[in-house]
Amino acid sequence: MDMNFNHHNHHLCLSKCPKQRCNTQWIFLDVHSDITIEVDGATFALHKFPLVSRSGRIRKLVADHRDNDLSRVELCGLPGGAESFELAAKFCYGVNFEITSSNVAQLCCISNYLEMTEEYAKGNLGFRAETYIDTIVCKNLEMCVQVLQQCENLLPLADELKIVSKCTDAIASKACVEQIASSFSRLEYSSSGRLQTNRQANGDGDWWIEDLSVLRIDLYQRVITAMRCRGLRPESIGVSLMDYAEKVLIKKSSQWNSAVQPKADIAGSFDHLQRLVVETIVNLLPVEKVIIPISFLFGMLRTAMMLDCTSNCRLDLERRIGSQLEIATLDDLLIPSFRHPSDTLFDVDTVHRILVNFSQQDDSEDDMEYASAYESEGSHSPCQSALLKVAKLIDNYLAEIAPDANLKFTKFMAIAESLPEHARTAHDGLYRAIDIYLKAHQGLSDTEKRRICKLVDFQKLSQEAGAHAAQNERLPIQSIVQVLYFEQLRLRNNLCSSYPDTDNKPTLHQSWRVGSGGLSAAMSPKDNYASLRRENRELKLELTRLRMRLNDLEKDHVCMKKNMEKSSGSHNLTGFSWMMKKMSLFSHSSSRGSSSPSKHSQETDFKMTRKMSEAHIY
Asked: Which Gene3D superfamilies does the entry link to (predicted)?
């Protein structure tokens, strides 16, 4: 709806000449101009009487210079510039024009500047513009958005006149009304006669989201804040924030993946406004978990790093990501190193901080709200369930970054040690990542190799991973001994499980003493307990013998190194062969370099069976 001003159909001539006065036409043919108004370089040849009758500011200027016969006035800092003054001059002359959502903010500001109030004329411009905002603009969400757009160049005066607050409150109120109406439209009666919400029905209560994306970030922030105070759903606010970020930041996102332009130039092409958009959106994000998709949070984190946003902004995103890290993917964690081209390919420090946030999150506050969602998942608590998912994710991440030649040992260890020991039920993924790292970083010292291999619990390796580790020459000798020991235990358990009947099942001690012969009747509980104790002692003795053999091997290794320094290449080979013969634990197997898994498994089983038989007979 537009408001028309139809007074006298006079013609107002506007002559504009930037920074100089141009020839002007008379407003009335029979009346000469007696005052010239200059606004931003544009001159208006007007008459004093129409102006002083409605403008208090011009009336005061003319009264103050009555003795000097004021003929020229320059208005500096006039809101809206020459365009706004032209509308005010038309109103003073009674020329017809329309008040619309595109000019009402300018009219409010210019009327305040020129003091066109009811004090000087009834139904003055200020009153009519304010009435238009209250009765027409505030009842329509689209018109409120248009007025806010006009206020971008009229601040802070538009804020002082409460134009911005009226429009933001009206938008928030309309959005909440639409939300309630949409919720009612999705109500339906179930088969039992109860009223329930149809979640599959498409709600149209968020149609306003796209309209807000045209606002400047400071005004958009005020609208979202007003909506939050009014109780708008966090889901709707989150969708609006994602839509705004996509439309504002996507314009320059194509430059990020440019292979020609250096990264420093890409970061420099983003101005302060883009950085302000990211920081403001992060501050407006809902505090509820799972409201914002984690992929969007990772995207905002990459953008914040690219634009060099404040540390508080990046730490806030890392904290939000850490609170729901269990639903992240490997691609999410692969954050490129934007600022340090000579450093690692991926930003490992950021991922480490995210893991620290995940480990330090307060379960009593953050996870109790979602406890009901995990009750049917099994015996694991919500925290343990999340730990298992994150552990698998981190193992894959370590395997992905391990081949990087610039990845330092301390950073790899920091990522691997960031999770507690009970987070991994199987260590195949961690072993795979460590093996890749050892292969790509062959310059590690023996101490570093032993330290990194201590992260793996070889008892939690699968049969395939254990077979691979037993013949992995990149592992320290101590780790290989552990693998062989646990493989021996697994072999014993498999042999014991081959007796399905509990009554006829032999104990570990009996099974190795009688070999393949017949067994006696079932043992009493007392005898069974004594047999288990004997078996435990035998295992401890066997472990002690393995440790003694390991000490002998280390001594032989030291002697061999001294001999190698004095002998030739051929003598080195002979010495190495002599040492291998001394290793009686491995003297029965020649399959370490074999590439056939089945052949190696058979020979390893034979070797372990014979060795364990000898140990028990002993």
From this structure: Potassium Channel Kv1.1, Chain A
- Is 0.85 topped by the overall pTM? no
Tens-digit pLDDT profile for residues 24-41? 343 555 667 788 888 888
**Which residues, other chains included, contact 397 with Cβ-Cβ below 8 Å and sequence gap of 6+?**
330, 333, 334, 351, 415
- Classified as helix, coil or strand, 336 is strand
CA distance 183 to 233: 11
pLDDT on residue 585 = 37
- Chain segment 411-426, per-residue pLDDT in tens: 999 999 999 888 899 9
Contact 76/54 with Cβ under 8 angstroms? no
> How far, in Å, CA of 281 to CA of 247, rounded?
13
pLDDT, tens digit (0-9, with 9 covering 90-100), for 529-574:
667 777 777 777 777 777 787 888 888 888 887 777 776 544 444 4
Please give the full DSSP string across 413-426, using - where no structure is assigned: HHHHTTS-GGG-S-
What secondary structure letter does DSSP report for 76? -
Task: Look up residue 523 and give its DSSP letter.
Answer: P
* Token couple for 183: 């919720």
- Rounded to whole angstroms, the Cα distance separating 490 from 537 reads 18
The two structure tokens encoding residue 592: 């370490």
Give whole-number Cα distances, 342 to 38, 261, 269, in Å: 59, 17, 21
Burial class (CB in 10 A: 0-12, 13-18, 19+), 482: buried
Q: What strands lie across the sheet with 35-39, from one edge to the other?
A: 15-16, 42-46, 35-39, 72-74
Closest CA to 114 of 56, 72, 36: 56
Give the burial string for 46-85 (b: 16+ CB within 10 Å, else e).
Answer: bbbebbbebbbbbbebbeeeeeeebeebebeebbbbbebb
Would you say 121 and 88 are in contact if contact means Cβ atoms under 8 Å apart?
Answer: no
Query: Contact, 412 vs 399, CB < 8 A?
Result: no
Average pLDDT over residues 271-296: 90
Count of all residues that appear for the chain in the document: 618
The β-bridge relationship of strands 35-39 and 42-46 is: antiparallel
- The span from the CA of 79 to the CA of 110, in Å, is 6
Q: When comparing pLDDT for 214 and 582, which is higher? A: 214
Q: Contact 483/592 with Cβ under 8 angstroms? A: no
- pLDDT over threshold 90, residue 238: yes
Which residues neighbour 574 within 8 Å (Cβ) at sequence distance 6 or greater? none
Euclidean distance between CA atoms 151 and 107, whole angstroms: 11
User: CA geometry: angle at 586 spanning 562 and 468, to 5°?
Assistant: 105
- Please, are residues 211 and 144 in contact by the beta-carbon 8 Å criterion? no
User: How many other CB atoms sit within 10 Å of the CB of residue 6?
Assistant: 9
Picking from 147-151, 178-182, 587-591, which range would have the lowest pLDDT averaged per residue?
587-591
> In the numeric block, which tokens belong to residue 534?
């004997």
Among the listed residues 46, 71, 157, the one whose alpha carbon sits nearest the alpha carbon of residue 111: 157
189 phi and psi angles, rounded to 5 deg: -90, 135
DSSP line for 482-514: HHHHHHHHHHHHHHHTT---STTPPPHHHHHHH
CB-based contact 575:563 (threshold 8 Å): yes
- CB neighbourhood size of 402 (10 A): 19
Q: Is 90 exceeded by the pLDDT of residue 380?
A: no
Strands 35-39 and 187-189: unpaired
Q: What is the DSSP string of 438-464?
A: HHH-TT--HHHHHHHHTT--GGG--HH
* pLDDT score recorded for residue 29: 52
